[in-house]
Structures are given as structure tokens and as C-alpha cells.
Design a protein that fits this description.
With about 300 residues, the protein is an alpha/beta fold. About 55% of the residues lie in helices and about 10% in strands. The protein has a six-stranded parallel beta sheet, with helices on both faces. Helix 3 packs across helix 4 and helix 5 crosses helix 8. The longest helix is centred in the C-terminal third of the chain and has 25 residues.
Length: about 300
């Protein structure tokens, strides 16, 4: 792929402003379109809760893989990556450039470095491992693959279970599957880096805006549907369901809980992003505009 048609990756933790920067960069470059690498913005019924690009942003720049699935449909990193790569190829074939943006680590990795050949999930084994006490799952992963366990966020049960599942199904350590990723990324990558306190403040404001801007109504409308495993994990959805179930009286408590969960998620994202040494950090301050950050990224493009 020539530099002119390589995708550009604009990444960052939730709340960092990457979506707005991606739109500004697309407008600055011209002839560019955005491909989402977000696991949850695919759901058409949850645009507010997932902080999907708004109608005005989507009118300014074409977006792909946003709001095209129902909450009953499942999504996963490999499936999403295949769709994203097809979109990137189509954009390049039309002489335009793709800007990939999102914060879902494995989704980004599959798009940027190729789909890992790790064995697919086995529902029966997954259910068995999920039923284990978290400390038992950690112990089994440490016994089966000490190096892989050391590189895993052991505080995240989902990561522990999936990595243990890969080791058990594949019969090889995690490093074997990770080495099968192509070494060079598909294109240049940038990550918005904000001070933790400022990011926390942005998350608090966005959480408040979500709850007052339609997130409650979105969840109320889908809570009786047969949510897919992916949709059910949408950040904040379970908390809102519980809030509605108990009568929805304490909105401040809900807001505080969602903001905390989002900060914790952002911390995990920052940990993953720091490990990706192919990404160029773009420091961002409270006063930084999306246009200014986009200009810095454009100036750094190969």
C-alpha cells in the first residue's frame, strides 16, 4: 500500500476527543473517510450511550461501521476487522484515504496488524471458564502460561478468561499467536495523550451529557430485547438497566458510578496504548482544539 492510500490510525482512550480529531483531520486532508474501530458504536439503537459520531459529524465526513447493527447482533474483533479492512480497501480504490479511529484494543490491533490466527472461542469452554472464581482463572492461566499471564491484565476477568481459553484450545502459549501478527502496522498511528485529571473531567462531563441527552431512553427501549453478548457489555448499559429496575430515583448515584467505570476503562485503554510502540503520542491540553491536534497529526504524516 502506498503512503497516499495507507490508513491513518487516530486512537485514544474513551473521552479523549479522538472522534472530533478524526473528523477535523479528514476535513484537513480532504478526500478522506472515517472507519470506526469501536466495538459498540456499531449499534444503531445506542448512539448516545456509545458516544457515536453525531449526525452533524457524519454529514461532514463519511463514516463506516457506525450504527449499522441491531443490538440483537453479535460483534467481535475478527468480524469487525474484516469489515473494516474491506471498507479501507474500498476507500483506497476510490482514491481516498481511510482514517481509523477507536479505542477497542483488539479491534484496532486486528485492523492495524492483521487478524490473529488464535483459535476461535468455544462456547462450552468459555462458559466453564467464566464460571470459575476470578482468582482460580488467574491461577490456571499462570500455571498454563506464566509469561502470557505476566503480560495479561489480571484485574480484567474477560481478558484472563479469553487468554486462558486460547492457551487451552490452541495448546500453545499466547506468545505463539501474537508472533503471527505482521510486524509492520498497516499505516501510521497516533494516540491522543491527555493528563489524567483532565481526561477524568472530560469523562465526567460526557457522562452527565449522556444521561441528560437520551441514554436512559435508549436503554429503556432495548432492555427487553435479546441483547447479544457484545451489546450487553456496552459500557454503562448494565448500570442503567439496574437504575431503571429500581425505580430510577438516584440519578446522581448512577452518574457517579458510570463515570467511575468509564475512568477505569480509560485507564485500561491507556495501559494498552502505551504498549503499542508503533503509535506516536500527540499531547493534548484542555485548550487544544480538534483542528489544532489534526494539524499536528497531518504535519507528522510520512
Amino acid at each position: 500500500m502506498k503512503h497516499a492510500t495507507q490508513p491513518i490510525f487516530v486512537l485514544g482512550p474513551t473521552g479523549s476527543g479522538k472522534s472530533a480529531v478524526a473528523v477535523a483531520l479528514a476535513e484537513l486532508l480532504g478526500e478522506a473517510e472515517i472507519v470506526s474501530a469501536d466495538a459498540y458504536q456499531v449499534y444503531r439503537e445506542l448512539p448516545v450511550l456509545t458516544a457515536a459520531p453525531c449526525a452533524e459529524e457524519r454529514a461532514r465526513v463519511p463514516h463506516h461501521l457506525v450504527g449499522f447493527m441491531g443490538v440483537e447482533e453479535n460483534n467481535d474483533a475478527a468480524l469487525h476487522a474484516r469489515r473494516a479492512l474491506a471498507a479501507i480497501q474500498d476507500i483506497a480504490a476510490r482514491g481516498k484515504r481511510a482514517i481509523v479511529t477507536g479505542g477497542s484494543g483488539l479491534y484496532v490491533k486486528f485492523i492495524s496488524h492483521g487478524i490473529s490466527p488464535a483459535p476461535p472461542s468455544d462456547p462450552a469452554l468459555r462458559a466453564e471458564l467464566q464460571a470459575l472464581p476470578p482468582e482460580e482463572a488467574v491461577r490456571r492461566l499462570q500455571e498454563a502460561d506464566p509469561a502470557g499471564a505476566a503480560a495479561t491484565n489480571l484485574q480484567n476477568p474477560r481478558y484472563v478468561v479469553r487468554n486462558l481459553e486460547i492457551v487451552l484450545l490452541g495448546g500453545k502459549p499466547l506468545s505463539h499467536w501474537q508472533q503471527n501478527w505482521q510486524h509492520a502496522p498497516a499505516g501510521p498511528g497516533f494516540v491522543l495523550a491527555r493528563d489524567t485529571a483532565e481526561l477524568d473531567a472530560r469523562i465526567a462531563r460526557r457522562t452527565a451529557a449522556m444521561l441528560r441527552g437520551g441514554a436512559l431512553d435508549e436503554v429503556r427501549a432495548v432492555q427487553e430485547k435479546a441483547l447479544s453478548a457484545t451489546a450487553a457489555k456496552t459500557l454503562g448499559l448494565a448500570a442503567i438497566v439496574e437504575h431503571l429496575r429500581t425505580g430510577g430515583r438516584d440519578l446522581r448515584q448512577l452518574e457517579a458510578g458510570m463515570a467511575l467505570a468509564t475512568r477505569q476503562y480509560a485507564k485500561r485503554q491507556r495501559t494498552w496504548l502505551r504498549r503499542e510502540d508503533w503509535l506516536t503520542a500527540v499531547p493534548a491540553q484542555a485548550a487544544s482544539t480538534a483542528q489544532a491536534l489534526a494539524a499536528r497529526i497531518a504535519a507528522a504524516l510520512p
